[in-house]
Write the structure tokens for this entry.
Amino acid sequence: MTGFVVFFGRGGDSKVERQLDEVRIAIGGVVIERACEAGFDPVVAVTRDEQAAARFGVAGATVDRAEGVPFHYGTELARVVGARKLDRVCAIGAGAGALLGEDQLRAIRTELESAQALVLSNNYYSADLVAFTPTSALGAIALPPADNPLPRLLHQQAGLPSRQLERSSATLLDVDTPADATVLRRHPACPPELAALGVWERELGSRIDALMRVVTTPERELVVAGRVGAPVWTYLESQTACRVRMLAEERGMQAAGRDTMGSARTALGFLYERTGPKEFFAELGQLGDGLLFDTRVLFAHLGWRPTAAERFASDLFHAEDLGPGPLRDFTAAAREAGYPLLLGGHTLVSGVLWTMVEAAWAGHPEPQS
């Protein structure tokens, strides 16, 4: 049997986190419907949340509420696979796959069913979608607490041949932050129920539209800073009309624990320490006409440990929602920078960037007269 498993757990209690959960539940429902149409059987949703359970059940999933506390991804995946005697499985977190079509999901199922041993993933080192066979390979690995290292473990410890799915907005986009959700609304393949949510347009909409115009305008320059991989850089070089300036640093930071150990370092961090927030953004503004900034690398370098609610408030330029201190000063300076920029996490400089470029060339926003 080839199963499909969606995992959903609530974030925090702040308004932004609750809104993100609404988006992730909507995405999970869309993905479940398409997985059912693609022929996966059974389709299982693992969640203890009643709102998510209701939406996922309507979409066609069997809801599994038996997850342990605290949640451990590898243990729960092994439990679901064992209880349902699955030979092959595709697992995804709610929030990922909003742009995955039925045909793409069917192709994943078909490839699994034609292979004796295989692991497919959207990212070998940090996965949001993992599909593999045989599921007995879970018994040969150290079960991970999160999904990110699963394809690497199945390949290195269980010996499964590994292949990454073709990189695209469909495979890379995972909605983790407000910017992720707001860019998704602009993609022509965004499901209508997601586009209708309309979250964070007031804070981010005009910034995103301005950056999309940079992407499609020759002689302008886009600055991308953070954990950027070579495939994204290659894509930008071939698919944008503008010039691209890339500052790629600290890839694999979280997987290696460099953020929690305090050993993460970035050139922009050294610059920030020398200039302070206002001059920092002024100097970055001399490098290009717009900026996509994976701020988590800078935060790790500086030893800042903001909560999720504080990170999201910064992403939304809500300096007034932050207590007095360096993160508030940083956020206020970013808001007043005088050029279009977005703040976020790793997805901002991978799936979101890919999605934004595709949406820009699809005609959103309309060119300025």
